[in-house]
Amino acid sequence: MANKNQNEPPFPNNNLTTAKPPSNKWCVGDEKMVGTANNGRSRQAFSVVNGGQDLGPNSAPASNAGSECGGIELTREEVEALLNEKPKRKDRFNLKERCDNMVEYIKRLKLCIKWFQELEGHYIFEQEKLLNALESAKQNCDEMEVLMKNKEEELNSIILELRKSYASLQDKFMKEELDKLAAMDSLTKEKEARLNFERTQASLSEELARAQRELLSANQKISSLNDMYRRLQDYNTSLQQYNGKLHTDLSTVEDELKRVEKDKATIVENLSMLRGQLTLSRASQDEAIKQKDALVNEVAFLRVELHQVRDDRDRLLSQVQILTTDATKYKESTEKYSVELDILTTKVNQLEMTCSSQNNQIVVLKNQLSTAEEKLQVSDSSAVETRTEFEGQKKLINELQNRLADAEFKLVEGEMLRKKLHNTILELKGNIRVFCRVRPILPDDGITTEGKVLSYPTSVEALGRGIDVVQNGQKHSFTFDKVFMPDTRQDDIFVEISQLVQSALDGYKVCIFAYGQTGSGKTYTMMGRPGHLEQKGLIPRSLEQIFQTRQSLQPQGWKYEMQVSMLEIYNETIRDLLSTNRSSSTENAVSAKQYAIKHDANGNTHVSDLTIVDVRSAKEVSFLLDHAAQSRSVGKTQMNEQSSRSHFVFTLKIFGVNESTEQQVQGVLNLIDLAGSERLSKSGSTGDRLKETQAINKSLSSLSDVIFALAKKEDHIPFRNSKLTYLLQPCLGGDSKTLMFVNISPEPSSAGESLCSLRFAARVNACEIGTPRRQTNMRPSDSRLSYG
């Protein structure tokens, strides 16, 4: 079933659960509003603003409505009944009774609205209070964070310095340890070399002593041999003397023998005696020869021994010389090794002193490191304390944010209810709702901060609803139902009109049209940018919502049939954009068919011979929209590269039947993209563009005349002055829900045109066109689509 109560107060999710009696009251005056939202958050009233008390669950907002309503208590059911109340018509021609009922009804609604406005004021004050508290808490939190960050940076820098110093000290310590180990290794090697040297020195000294001993013994032997040689020489000289003596004796003997032989005769007689002496002398001579041979042999042996002794002496002398040279070398190497040993000893002493100093430095550094670690522990404890304080502040901020969210939720709820009541009053009055959208600044605009002519007030009353224009130093302020700033996205805009689109499925006539100068973004608002899903316009999004809602309502027994038609009004001529046999002539040529606009007795509008297409999905409508966009008249001007030169009208007629309840509804959704108003001095239009501009400005001027007549409540409304106003007659002067988008360009050169558009929109917003009415009649037999 369609949403029957779409104009009722916006309770959250349309399902507000109230507390049990006797406190289930919304008291207008001196009672409080009690209720629980669906999301589980308790709705507590704010304290009295003037007194400055804190919030309390039992405090009630001050209200001036008590004097007017007399302390009347309204429950949620009574408010819903008040909103859904239909005027009792005993006599439909008794206008005074109807007027009195309407005045009474509006008075009660004003009381409710006044109470809600006061409650909204309290909510806003409390929100500001919470925002201030939140800002102060955030400032404290930021200061704490800054302090923590500074402390943390200081501690980190100290830790980094300590770590760097510790690392450098460790590196130095490792290097010193390595040097120490290398020195120890070299020292041990030097000690081993020294020991080896001492061993070799000892062995060499022993060998030297042994060699010296051998030399001494050899010298002794040489001396003894020399003595023996001298003795042998003496003995040889004595033997030579003896041999000489023997030679002399032999010569003397021979002389004597000769003398004896000479004197043989003389000595014959003495022969026997001489023979005896001769044998004795021969025996002594043989003994002497034997002694001589023995002495010769002994001399030869002694000579051999002497030669051997001389060889031994030479060998020993050579050994002594070798040993002497070795001893001198050993002495020199010993001196060199002793010098090196002294140097190594001094190095070892220096290394030991360096190691001792480094050990002292390491001890000092360890002490510094321990103190730094203690400082780090102290800083960690202070950081933990700061962090706990920060967590407390964070919890406080979260609590304040939760309270702010609750206040914002209550404010949003009150704002939704205010909007609903405001819309209800507007619908009762029959006003046209107006939304203002400002086009974003384009790179080609060349607008600086000093050159901006648009601003948006931030006061509570005008926030999101007001816009200011500065022209020639004068400020002009306007207030509409909603103002969208340049950074507003397409989906955010569609959220604001989604309920209005939903009304078409509920059986209402809905009309949304975009108005503004050329290049202000009307076509972008209605159609979007092709090929970009996130930039789809209101028409594609509305169709998607309608078909999605149609699908979701099928389980409830609803069946819908939908028909689409699209036309444009070009130079005061209606063109069918879905026609398959459009004239192939130029853009200025008149269509072969003459389309006539007719109104029936029920307020519905029909266009004769217009192509009507049955649609079953959003894709079919998208295809038709693309076809219509290609057929639409566009042109290039100095203000817009691709300017729409006609008024585009998209119409979707909805016929729904509920098979279970046999309820029937008939709704119409009209989405209109008007051609842009432009000045000839700026657009530079000539030829065909000039005729188009004149036709556009004429139709928009007729629309302005109709708005002026409606605002003044004149008896005659000039709907027939143009095809556009005559086609929009049910939307402007009937029982339709109508919304106008006024599109504004932020360029300073367009300030005058923007001011004219805003003034026109303000007049439109003040027009009363009648109360919307649901159409529950049967589907007409005529298959042509009505625009009413």
UniProtKB/TrEMBL annotation:
Residue intervals of the Kinesin motor domain: 431-767
Composition bias, Polar residues: 1-21
GO molecular function: ATP binding; microtubule binding; microtubule motor activity
GO cellular component, one term: microtubule
Residue ranges of coiled coil: 127-161, 194-312, 348-417
Protein family membership: Belongs to the TRAFAC class myosin-kinesin ATPase superfamily. Kinesin family. KIN-14 subfamily.
Pfam families documented for this protein: Kinesin
Region (Disordered): 1-25, 49-69
Keyword Coiled coil: yes
Keywords noted in UniProt: ATP-binding, Coiled coil, Microtubule, Motor protein, Nucleotide-binding
A GO BP entry: microtubule-based movement
Binding site for ATP: G516, Q517, T518, G519, S520, G521, K522, T523
Name this polypeptide is given: Kinesin-like protein
